[in-house]
Write a structure and sequence with these properties.
Number of strands: 19
Strand content: 25-35%
CATH class of the largest domain: Alpha Beta
Number of helices: 7
CATH topology of the largest domain: Aminopeptidase
Helix content: 25-40%
Order of helices and strands: HHEEEEEHEHEEEHEEEEHEEEEEEH
Largest sheet: 6 strands, mixed
Oligomer: single chain
């Protein structure tokens, strides 16, 4: 049978930062074809595809993403853990799903599909397109690090881009220009005035200033400055956008590049659900069945230089996925 640790290590060893997932997609597709799965590649952009593997259909889809945040961190095993970029977010999860589906088929259960998407870490273009596939599953188990708990719900995500404009000039005569960076700094220093809604289950909305880019050279008064914010959404996005617009109050141009709604999820006997503050692709995969969220690993180490997954938890996740599939199919 498939060893999930060996499979996870192979996946982590393949660089697949968002927009460059081609080699990971090829590896997964070849692995599935070799085991008799019906594999369909759905091109998202040239060189990047979603992977849909099926047998009989009409059952449960196990799904996660193959892309990672930068930079690439190669795998290493140490102290009962697999380290490396994607170890828990989400290549270890993909490996556990592949192993679980492989074992279910070997035991005669073929009402299981696998869906691996690209682009989750940057706008979820893969999931948005995957929702156009002719899915037949009744249930979707999405995989993100939940510390092997079933999720009760997840926050949504609203990307906000702020742009301030200035007028370029030689820095020796700065009075002839107008800095675009100075008003951006003033605006961001006032971020505490942004009103953030609270939800009884999901908790408070939060905001993170992720990037600031401005100017071109130290000796040029900067003509443009851009800041990217990520807001974690717990309720009505229209209310949150209205709060953003009141806070900005005309001090910058506002754009909303992408939005994923918050989600409440179902329960399964034997699991105690808990809420999570991050966002997943599940709200974008509405055609794939009733959604659930489960995965090994902790989100608190994802996106860090020391990202890891506990080997025992990784192996245990295979049994959990098999159990969840059987339970949902029997419901």
């Amino acid at each position: 049978m498939t060893d999930p640790l060996a499979l996870a290590a192979e996946l982590v060893a393949i660089p697949s930062v968002t927009k460059d997932e081609g080699k990971a997609v090829e590896f997964v597709a070849r692995w599935l074809v070799a085991r008799g799965w019906n594999v369909q590649l759905q091109e998202v952009t040239p060189g990047r595809s979603n992977v849909w593997a099926s047998r009989k259909g009409g059952g449960v889809t196990l799904s996660t993403h193959l892309d990672t945040v930068p930079p690439f961190v190669p795998p290493r095993s140490e102290g009962g853990r697999l380290y490396g970029r994607g170890a828990c977010d989400a290549k270890g999860i993909a490996a556990a799903m592949m192993a679980a589906a492989d074992r279910l088929v070997a035991e005669g259960e073929e009402r299981v599909d696998l869906l691996f998407v690209v682009g989750e870490e940057r706008g979820s273009d893969g999931a948005r397109l995957a929702n156009q596939l002719p899915a037949t599953s009744r249930f979707l188990i999405n995989g993100e690090p939940t510390e092997s708990h079933l999720a009760a719900g997840t926050k949504g995500a609203l990307r906000v881009t702020l742009i301030t404009k200035g007028r370029e000039a030689h820095s020796a005569y700065a009075e002839l220009g107008q800095s675009a960076i100075t008003p951006m700094l003033r605006l961001l220093l006032d971020i505490g005035a942004l009103e953030l809604p609270v939800d009884d289950l999901l908790g408070p909305s939060t905001v993170n200033v992720g990037t600031i880019r401005g100017g071109s050279e130290a000796n040029i008064v900067p003509g443009e400055c851009t800041a990217e914010l990520m807001l974690r959404v717990v309720g009505d996005v229209a209310e949150l956008k209205a709060n953003v617009e009141r806070w900005v109050a005309g001090r910058a141009e506002i754009r909303y590049p992408s939005f994923t709604p918050p989600q409440r999820l179902g329960a399964v006997a034997g699991y105690t659900p808990r809420p999570f503050a991050y966002t997943t692709d599940a709200p974008l995969l509405t055609n794939w069945g009733t959604p659930y969220l489960f995965g090994p690993g902790s989100i608190t180490v994802a996106h860090t230089p020391d990202e890891f997954i506990d080997v025992a938890e990784l192996r245990g996740a295979v049994d959990h996925y098999m159990r969840l599939v059987r339970t949902l199919l029997g419901s």
